[in-house]
Amino acid sequence: MEIKSTRDKIMHTLLNNPRSTINELAEAVGINAISVRHHLNSMLADGVVASEEERHGVGRPRLVYYLTERGLEKFPTRYFRLANRLLGRLKETLPASAVETIFSEMARELAEDHLRETQNMSLEEKLDFLKKLLSEEGFIIEWEKIGDSYHIHEITCPYFHVTQAHPEVCAVDQTLISTVLSLPAQKIQCVLSGDHHCTYIIPLEKAGNPNHE
């Protein structure tokens, strides 16, 4: 997509970073927040953008923006419409447990292709490998050690627009993370629940506390 106008830049930013605030959009696009608000009001009226309040720590919820299906259709690719239709038909044909199993097995097969590469890695080396692997799948993740656990944050998710209608797809990244690390990853935050991003936690006691102080 050729980016020509400020409106195009805002939409392109929301495509890659859904659930952005006005200030985040202003920083990404390079204009002031007042101008962004003006454009967003127009885009809300046109039905290409929607907004909702999101919990974010202590204090009042913040307002975040994301592209609607109509807004997504402005981009050349319409993969999400095909994906939604295919998943809808799949869920009509198979029980929910079978659908979840399909997604988990897909992710497990992808991860198992790389297990030989990671078998002698430390946990932190595996986390770095996981970051690279997921980036190839369209994710942007960051990890950090907090207290007695590791936290894996999904900054962006390529499946965000599909998971709104089909949350079963979330099994892909969770299974991929658990399989690569050879440890169960517990989801403690989820964008579908109103959080800013998905976060998984790996307690150190489950990791066997390797290579830690």
Q: Kindly report the oligomeric state of this protein.
A: single chain
The counted number of beta strands is 6
Bin the strand percentage. Answer: 15-25%
- CA radius of gyration: 19 Å
What is the averaged pLDDT score?
86
Largest beta sheet, briefly?
4 strands, antiparallel
What is the terminal separation in angstroms?
48 Å
Structure annotation, total helices: 11
How would you describe the shape? globular
Describe this entry's structure for a reader.
- The chain has 11 helices and 6 strands.
- The N and C termini lie far apart (48 Å).
- Helix 2 (22-29) packs across helix 3 (33-46).
- The chain is 50% helix and 17% strand.
- Strand 1 (49-54) and strand 2 form a beta hairpin.
In brief:
With 213 residues, the chain is α+β, with helices and mostly antiparallel strands. It contains 11 helices and 6 strands.
